[in-house]
């Protein structure tokens, strides 16, 4: 089991939990379906998991590309503790090679300078608590590749009553997946498209592996999860593909898992593709609703009507949203529609939060100093 990082760990890496030695002297990383086979000194495609003397180490344990307090709706999670702040952080690297990556400066980085901040798991948990955050999000790059760090942070967070949220592509091997999601309370999964051709050509991945993770979450865990598809003009936005995807979604995940259709903007290696038209998002949402999904949203555009939550029983607007700002609330404290009494799926805990659309960058140096000095002892309860 890994422990909190020391300065030496940041340089040499913390030993990973999922790998095995091969007969030819290489070691195989078993965290994700790439199963990178590495000689001594080599790094995997993610660039952060490496063969160091015949063992796999995570070279980014305890290091982050930055910290920020966000609205939970930005993850996006619309039906998990609505209106509350979430402490967000990531590291560097990724195990997919998406040509349209919207966080490419972080996820594609191979520069150690990207990792500007260092923090032990306990420091992150205490910082989230003192900042009034109900949860911590592992985001910006995929937490699959920093699994050991994410799990240790999640354990520290649970010790002080803070929940954990994974923002991920779901590209993870079965054994590692079981441990990872055992420590997560919520997740948003990217379902990048619904064809193997898209995953192969634009992500160098496999759709089937992601679908396996979605079915696993639905059938084998209590993790609250929502799904996001970034609609890219001419790539994954045809009515036929959206129909097939949402039919699979209904048959395998049910009607109550929220689905977000998000607008693409030109970035990374796909700057020649135009922005997603608003009408494309509306068309996709209409197809999903006609196929029987109850909670379907559009994202990265200003559209309060299609970003709000509606009761599947009576059709009443139960949560209104303007971007990340809550504008309307029509649920009782346990998540029932106040008009008809039907349960609206999600995780609710009393009245909604009032964080709004604020984004607050954070530096952890002061929190870490206070933790090391012991001055944070006794501050292990959620602020009122």
Written description of the protein model:
It is a single chain. This protein folds into two domains: 7-58, no CATH class; 64-301 and 351-361, TIM Barrel, CATH 3.20.20.70. By secondary structure, the protein is an alpha/beta fold. The longest helix has 15 residues, at 239-253. A nine-stranded mixed β-sheet has the order 16-15-14-13-12-11-9-8-20. A three-stranded antiparallel β-sheet has the order 1-6-5. 49% of the residues are buried. The protein has helices at residues 7-12, 104-107, 121-130, 147-159, 174-182, 196-203, 207-220, 239-253, 278-290, 304-307, 365-373; strands at 14-15, 19-21, 27-29, 37-38, 49-51, 56-58, 63-64, 66-71, 85-90, 117-118, 135-138, 163-168, 186-190, 224-231, 259-263, 296-299, 309-310, 317-322, 325-329, 360-362. 27% of the residues lie in helices and 21% in strands. The radius of gyration is 21 Å and the shape is globular. It starts with 6 loop residues before the first helix and ends in an 11-residue tail after the last helix. α3 (121-130) packs across α4 and α8 packs across α9.
Key features of this structure:
384 residues, alpha/beta, TIM Barrel, nine-stranded mixed beta sheet, three-stranded antiparallel beta sheet, 20 strands, disordered N terminus, disordered C terminus
């Amino acid at each position: 089991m890994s422990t909190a990082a020391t300065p030496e760990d940041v340089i040499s890496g913390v030993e990973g939990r999922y790998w095995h030695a091969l007969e030819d002297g290489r070691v195989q990383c078993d965290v994700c379906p790439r199963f990178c086979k590495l000689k001594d000194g080599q790094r995997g495609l993610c660039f952060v998991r490496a063969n160091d003397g015949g063992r796999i180490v995570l070279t980014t344990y305890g290091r982050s590309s930055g910290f920020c307090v966000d609205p939970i709706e930005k993850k996006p999670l619309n039906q998990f503790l609505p209106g509350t702040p979430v402490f967000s952080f990531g590291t560097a690297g990724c195990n997919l090679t998406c040509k349209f990556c919207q966080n490419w400066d972080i996820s594609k980085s191979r520069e150690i300078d990207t990792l500007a901040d260092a923090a032990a798991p306990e420091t992150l948990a205490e910082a989230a608590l003192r900042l009034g955050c109900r949860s911590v999000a592992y985001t910006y790059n995929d937490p699959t590749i920093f699994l050991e760090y994410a799990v240790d942070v999640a354990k520290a967070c649970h010790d002080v009553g803070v929940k954990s949220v994974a923002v991920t592509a779901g590209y993870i091997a079965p054994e590692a997946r079981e441990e990872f999601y055992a420590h997560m309370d919520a997740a948003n999964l990217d379902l990048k498209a619904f064809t193997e051709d898209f995953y192969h050509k634009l992500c160098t991945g496999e759709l089937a592996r992601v679908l396996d993770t979605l079915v696993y979450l639905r059938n084998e865990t209590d993790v609250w999860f929502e799904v996001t598809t970034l609609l890219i003009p001419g790539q994954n936005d045809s009515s036929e593909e959206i129909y097939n995807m949402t039919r699979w979604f209904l048959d395998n995940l049910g009607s109550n898992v929220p689905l977000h259709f998000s607008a693409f903007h030109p970035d990374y290696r796909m700057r020649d593709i135009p922005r997603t038209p608003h009408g494309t998002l509306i068309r996709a949402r209409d197809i999903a609703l006609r196929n029987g999904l109850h909670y379907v949203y559009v994202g990265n555009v200003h559209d309060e009507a299609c970003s709000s939550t509606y009761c599947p029983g009576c059709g009443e607007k139960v949560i209104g949203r303007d971007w990340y700002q809550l504008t309307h609330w029509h649920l009782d404290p346990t998540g029932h529609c106040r008009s008809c009494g039907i349960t609206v799926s999600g995780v609710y805990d009393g009245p909604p939060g009032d964080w709004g659309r604020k984004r607050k960058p954070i530096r952890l140096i002061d929190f870490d100093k206070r933790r090391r000095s012991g001055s944070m002892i006794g501050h292990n309860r959620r602020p009122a």
